[in-house]
Design brief:
This protein has three helices and no strands. The chain is an all-alpha fold. It has a domain of 74 residues. Keywords: Membrane, Transmembrane, Transmembrane helix.
Length: 144
């Protein structure tokens, strides 16, 4: 099963009139340095996005950004159904149910506990940076 990573809402890419057909994107003006052996090269668009300051406050709840099929209740129900299915198919064998429960428990741990905590820390840091940036802009405006 593939799982989504926590991300802020994606921004739409701008397309210029010169880009032509609908599938083409505007070329990036940011140059990239050659990849170092320790770090893989990121696309210029991804580098530019990472360097942009946040434009709006982030919701601290990661589940606000997830679709309905990726909410805590659906993760719990799916995991329980897999364990119950393994138990039923194996002739009610607790060994097979336990073997199915191990990866499900790891999945629950990471996606219901670790990922939301990491996203919350990221959102709080991002919101603090945004607040500091806004205060700095207000001070500049008052000085003029």
């Amino acid at each position: 099963m593939a799982a989504a990573t926590p991300t802020a809402p994606r921004r739409r890419r701008r397309r210029s009139a010169a880009a032509g057909s609908e599938g083409e994107e505007e070329p990036s003006s940011t140059s990239t340095s050659p990849p170092s052996p320790q770090q893989p090269q990121q696309p210029a668009e991804q580098q530019a996005f990472a360097q942009q300051p946040p434009q709006q406050r982030l919701e601290l709840n990661v589940w606000a950004y997830k679709p309905p099929w990726c909410q805590p209740w659906s993760i719990l129900v799916t995991g329980a159904a897999v364990v119950a299915g393994a138990w039923a198919v194996s002739g009610r064998s607790p060994v097979w149910a336990a073997l199915a429960a191990l990866p499900i428990a790891a999945w629950w741990y990471f996606f219901l506990l670790v990922m939301p905590a990491q996203f919350r820390a990221y959102a709080e840091q991002s919101n603090a940076e945004l607040a500091a940036q806004q205060q700095q802009q207000q001070r500049r405006g008052q000085q003029l």
